[in-house]
Write a structure and sequence with these properties.
signal, mainly alpha, 180 residues
């Protein structure tokens, strides 16, 4: 039996040595002009609302008194149990509209960094043995509080803010905004 293993190992090493070394060409040219760089697909409104609130909670910038009033109004509207996807989209736009261009750029950079970390994690992760996964749910589950359960609910167009983790996120952000 051991001679079979040694034969297979020797054959593998021989094949590897016989294969020419093909290096991947490295270029320092930018993305071709006229060709759009790949972008993530637009988020479902509920997922976008949950992700925006999550990033706003983690943001390092301070809000003005006027911004605090707008954000608190949006947060209380997001906590409604009968929130629709269209309303979530409008509230997210209202929330983002209250931010200054610098704050918006910071939030967008945080979103891009979170997306890249999630993509890198998914590239390293192994596929589950219990069958194929819905990669959209897995991806957003890694990005939002509440994990896959919140992502699944949000992708179905229902409000995820009734689940424990997203509800705690809203409460924590509201409390932080009411403190001087």
């Amino acid at each position: 039996m051991s001679h079979v293993i040694w034969s297979l190992l020797l054959a593998t090493l021989t094949l590897a040595a016989a294969t020419p070394n093909r290096a991947i060409p490295v270029t320092d040219t930018p993305w071709p002009r006229g060709v759009a760089a790949p972008r993530p697909a637009p988020l479902a409104p509920m997922v976008d609302a949950l992700l925006t609130v999550h990033l706003l909670d983690r943001a390092a910038f301070a809000l003005t008194a006027e911004q605090v009033l707008t954000v608190r109004g949006v947060l209380s509207s997001l906590s409604r149990p009968n929130l629709t996807a269209a309303q979530a989209g409008q509230l997210t736009r209202r929330l983002l509209g209250a931010l200054t261009p610098e704050q918006l750029a910071t939030l967008q950079a945080d979103r891009a960094a979170l997306y890249q970390r999630t993509q890198a994690f998914m590239a390293r992760a192994r596929v589950a043995e219990d069958g194929p996964q819905d990669l959209t749910v897995v991806r957003y589950g890694l990005m939002v509080p509440g994990g896959r359960a919140a992502a699944q609910v949000a992708l179905q167009g229902r409000t995820p803010f009734g689940l424990p983790e997203p509800a705690a996120l809203l409460k924590r952000l509201q409390q932080r905004l009411t403190q001087p």
